[in-house]
């Protein structure tokens, strides 16, 4: 990635809501360089607060909110376009995660994005790749988090394989070391569980191959510090023999309360044996002779991704191009619907209080509204919605994917009130308004014209949408019939659409 140059510095910030730790990174960006102005991390151990029903405890949510309250002053005056708050594995899993997200958004005044495991891996790769020398050859990147472990193979700034497995230092602590006892049996059980998870990706990764194995984040940083302090490895390098000597040291200690290793922070001691067990399993599975530590991680990757947003290098544009190709969309028709949707949006945006982010989301949905045709013409809006919600879409958060899926689902036939009500009340009106604009754009282009119809005028009175047709369209019985049906669909959903014929 080669970010665009800006003469004036931009202040950017990333908050990583991890399963073990929350991290804040604030930096000024100028002349294609970052200057870090604030960097903090706190052990929140969110994953430790999950019960058997995957509900976060009140105590875990309280720890999270206290941490975010300390982060809040650092991001209070940052342009919302230059801030991203990203939630990972525990917030992907937690059945009551939306409650914590709502509190966090109210406190920070900004949306919290929940990203998929592979999107998390992509962002980690960006952070690591930019922290290392720009050398040729493939890299193997490993990040052991609190609730998941990410595996990436990439070259320069392009990932080639991305995987996220549900194993981490906090989740494995609960599963194998809950009482603090460390012995050979427990350690091996944890390693075998990790080996089982890794087995599903082992062969494809080995077939790709790499020349440079790199690890990042807390567990690997602490292991590297410990083996270096003991003179067992060169600083920043974890050699296989040194790692397995450390494994035996942990077992010999017998209990987490007895751990006293130079380089191990006290607040990480409880989850450290589980993290080492996962790391040993990875070394065993891939027969790694060594792993070197990099301090680039998810939060750095978020900042680099922010720099590329809304530029030709935006990863989301590559994803859209890939979807067009994969599902063989009719690009002319998609472009026509996009044009009509954007024209409609621009006429009502101010009155309906819709901003740039909503305009972009509507454009994406208009571009992708027919991808379900690759599955079947029957109910293709439903098929398209399913594909968008459940595919891995690099660059898109789960929130973005869910919003896209809803708009595509809502662009024709009965208005999906049930699906709309699944969104938080604060955003329902916004999504409903975008869906109504997309529905109109699709109807105006239903005959698949060479160019989209122009001179369609929109106005609003509250939530009443007023559509004035140009004279050339008022004579189309098919169009008027479709609009009449649309009036009924919207009325059944509680919305009012008025069609005003123009002079012929």
UniProtKB/TrEMBL annotation:
Pfam families: Ppx-GppA, Ppx-GppA_III
Sequence ranges assigned to domain Ppx/GppA phosphatase C-terminal in this UniProt record: 316-456
Matches recorded under Gene3D superfamilies: 3.30.420.40, Exopolyphosphatase. Domain 2, Hypothetical protein af1432
SUPFAM superfamilies (UniProt xref): Actin-like ATPase domain, HD-domain/PDEase-like
InterPro entries assigned to the protein according to its UniProt record, in alphabetical order: ATPase_NBD (IPR043129), GppA/Ppx_hydrolase (IPR050273), Ppx_GppA_C (IPR048950), Ppx_GppA_N (IPR003695), PyroPPase_GppA_Ppx (IPR030673)
Keywords attached to this entry: Hydrolase
Superkingdom of the source species: Bacteria
Domain annotation Ppx/GppA phosphatase N-terminal: ranges: 26-308
Name of the molecule in the record: Ppx/GppA family phosphatase
Organism field: Billgrantia aerodenitrificans
């Amino acid at each position: 990635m080669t970010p665009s140059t800006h003469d004036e510095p931009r202040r950017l910030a990333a908050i990583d809501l991890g399963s073990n730790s929350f991290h804040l990174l604030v930096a000024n960006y100028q002349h294609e360089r970052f200057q870090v102005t604030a960097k903090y991390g706190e052990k929140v151990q969110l994953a430790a607060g999950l019960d058997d029903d995957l509900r976060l405890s009140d105590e875990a949510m309280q720890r999270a909110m206290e941490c975010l309250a300390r982060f809040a002053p650092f991001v209070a005056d940052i342009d919302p376009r230059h801030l991203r708050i990203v939630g990972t594995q525990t917030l992907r899993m937690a059945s009551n995660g939306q409650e914590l997200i709502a509190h966090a958004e109210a406190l920070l005044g900004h949306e919290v994005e929940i990203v998929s495991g592979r999107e998390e891996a992509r962002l980690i790769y960006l952070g690591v790749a930019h922290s290392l020398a720009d050398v040729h050859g493939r890299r193997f990147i490993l990040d052991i988090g609190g609730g998941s472990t990410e595996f990436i193979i990439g070259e320069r700034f392009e990932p080639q394989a991305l995987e996220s497995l549900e194993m981490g230092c906090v989740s494995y602590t609960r599963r194998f070391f809950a009482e603090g006892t460390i012995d050979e049996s427990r350690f091996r059980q944890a390693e075998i569980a990790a080996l089982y998870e890794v087995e599903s990706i082992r062969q494809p990764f080995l077939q790709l191959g790499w020349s440079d194995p790199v690890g990042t984040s807390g567990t690997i940083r602490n292991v590297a510090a410990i083996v270096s302090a003991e003179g067992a490895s060169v600083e920043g390098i974890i050699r296989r023999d040194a790692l397995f000597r450390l494994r035996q040291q942990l077992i010999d200690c017998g209990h987490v309360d007895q751990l006293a290793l130079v380089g191990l922070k006290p607040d990480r001691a409880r989850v450290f044996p589980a993290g080492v067990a996962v790391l040993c399993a990875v070394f065993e599975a891939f027969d790694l002779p060594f792993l070197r530590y990099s301090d680039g991680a998810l939060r750095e990757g978020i900042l680099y991704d922010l720099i590329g947003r809304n530029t030709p290098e935006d990863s989301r544009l590559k994803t859209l191009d890939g979807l067009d190709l994969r599902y063989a969309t009719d690009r002319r028709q998609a472009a026509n619907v996009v044009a009509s949707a954007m024209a409609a949006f621009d006429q009502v945006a101010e009155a309906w209080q819709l901003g740039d982010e909503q305009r972009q989301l509507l454009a994406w949905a208009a571009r992708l509204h027919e991808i379900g045709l690759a599955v079947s013409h029957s109910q293709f809006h439903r098929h398209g919605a399913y594909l968008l919600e459940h595919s891995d879409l690099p660059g898109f958060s789960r929130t973005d994917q869910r919003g896209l899926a809803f708009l595509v689902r809502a662009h024709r036939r009965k208005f999906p009130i049930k699906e709309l009500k699944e969104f938080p009340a604060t955003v329902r009106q916004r999504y409903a308004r975008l869906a109504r604009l997309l529905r109109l754009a699709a109807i105006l282009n239903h005959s698949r014209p060479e160019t989209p119809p122009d001179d369609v005028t929109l106005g609003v009175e509250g939530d009443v949408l007023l559509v004035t047709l140009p004279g050339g369209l008022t004579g189309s019985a098919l169009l008027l019939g479709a609009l009449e049906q649309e009036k009924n669909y919207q009325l059944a959903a509680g919305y009012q659409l008025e069609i005003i014929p123009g002079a012929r």
